[in-house]
Automatic annotation (TrEMBL):
InterPro entries: LPCAT1-like, Plipid/glycerol_acylTrfase. One of its GO terms (molecular function) is O-acyltransferase activity. It is found in: Membrane. Keywords: Acyltransferase, Lipid biosynthesis, Lipid metabolism, Membrane, Phospholipid biosynthesis, Phospholipid metabolism, Transferase, Transmembrane, Transmembrane helix. This is Lysophospholipid acyltransferase. It comes from the Eukaryota.
Length: 341
């Protein structure tokens, strides 16, 4: 199928790589070594999944995971999740994680809530390796190896995005956890700090979607973090391909480098505290500037239309209609010609 380059930023389209000498050398060596590396990586992932699942189920046996756990139990779970995340990263070829401004890394004992841009369903595994343990994720990821059991055991939250009632319940839980925890008084926190991806879905590192207000409703400072996956050799995002396909390429490739940058806390002013959506919009402005990514007003329904999950163009956002049109879908071969180091 012929690829058609888009002239405007699109957060869902496949990102095509610049075909340099380095690109061909990387993939030449990758395919040459794939018969050796790929089976080893599959074994590592299976091992990490089995061991992590077994131990976490043992640690959470006969307890209500929705209630506060003893700090020692929480620490044991966090250590096991770190182990699972580390092995899963090794098995998927994501060896090199570079932390930028580590002095601004949030204190997981006192932080209110952490937020990050969202590139891949694999993002939480990166953070497991960095010591985080509790996430807000879509319901479909509950069965994902390692991450599913880790999010559940880490007292994370799964939301059914197409169910308004589920979204409202999760929003109330987020508000309760970010507003009424006791760590600010010097006591051990009741629940691990939540990591929230405010875009609510993955994007391709070329544009930002609107930030949902859930993480900002408590009016407390948010700890800001960003992820940058290397795009030099393949598109790491799962916005325009199936999750399994997205995990296949880094397992075949020699390696992938990921940058995690910490920005410290964003402290809201009185207006932002009173208006969570204003708070969310201003934080998105910050991310847009830091990541050099243009803001778009695309929605999840737009993504599902582009992806072919539904064909009802009438329910797409006005932004999508004004900037792209009904023919812009993955099936029709629309891509983004964009490459960053």
């Amino acid at each position: 199928m012929k690829e058609i380059p888009l002239t405007k930023p699109n957060p869902f389209a496949k990102v095509v790589q610049k075909k340099t000498l380095g690109y061909y050398l990387y993939w030449g060596l990758s395919w040459l070594l794939a018969p050796i590396l790929f089976p080893i990586r599959v074994i590592i992932i299976i091992f990490s999944s089995v061991v992590t699942t077994t131990i976490l189920k043992f640690l959470t046996k006969d307890i209500d995971i929705n209630k506060p756990l003893h700090p020692v139990k929480t620490k044991l779970i966090q250590k096991m999740e770190y182990f699972g995340g580390l092995l899963y990263c090794l098995g998927s070829g994501r060896y090199f994680i570079k932390e930028i401004n580590p002095q601004l890394k949030p204190d997981l004992k006192t932080a209110n809530v952490c937020i990050c841009n969202h590139v891949s369903s694999f993002d939480p595994c990166i953070f497991l390796r960095l010591g985080f343990q509790s996430f807000v994720a879509k319901e479909e990821l509950r069965k994902m190896p390692v991450f599913g059991i880790c999010t559940w055991a880490g007292q994370g939250l799964f939301v059914k995005r197409d169910n308004k009632q589920s979204s409202e319940i999760i929003s109330k839980i987020i508000l309760d956890r970010t507003s009424n925890d006791i760590q600010s008084f010097g006591y051990p926190r009741k629940y691990p700090v939540l990591m929230i991806f405010p875009e609510g879905t993955t994007v391709n590192q070329t544009a930002l979607m609107p930030f949902k207000k859930g993480a900002f409703m408590g009016g407390k400072p948010v700890s800001m973090i960003s992820l940058r996956y290397q795009q030099k050799y393949f598109d790491p995002s799962d916005t325009s391909s199936h999750m399994v396909t997205t995990q296949f390429w880094p397992m075949i490739g020699l390696w992938q480098t990921i940058e995690v940058e910490y920005y410290g806390d964003y402290i809201p002013n009185d207006q932002e505290v009173a208006d969570p959506q204003l708070y969310a919009d201003n934080v998105r402005n910050f991310y847009s500037e830091k990541l050099n990514q243009q803001k778009t007003d695309c929605t999840l329904k737009d993504k599902m239309y582009y992806f072919g999950k539904h064909s009802d163009y009438s329910i797409c956002s006005q932004y999508y209609k004004d900037n792209y049109g009904p023919e812009v879908t993955r099936k029709n071969g629309y891509v983004v010609q964009h490459w960053k180091k």
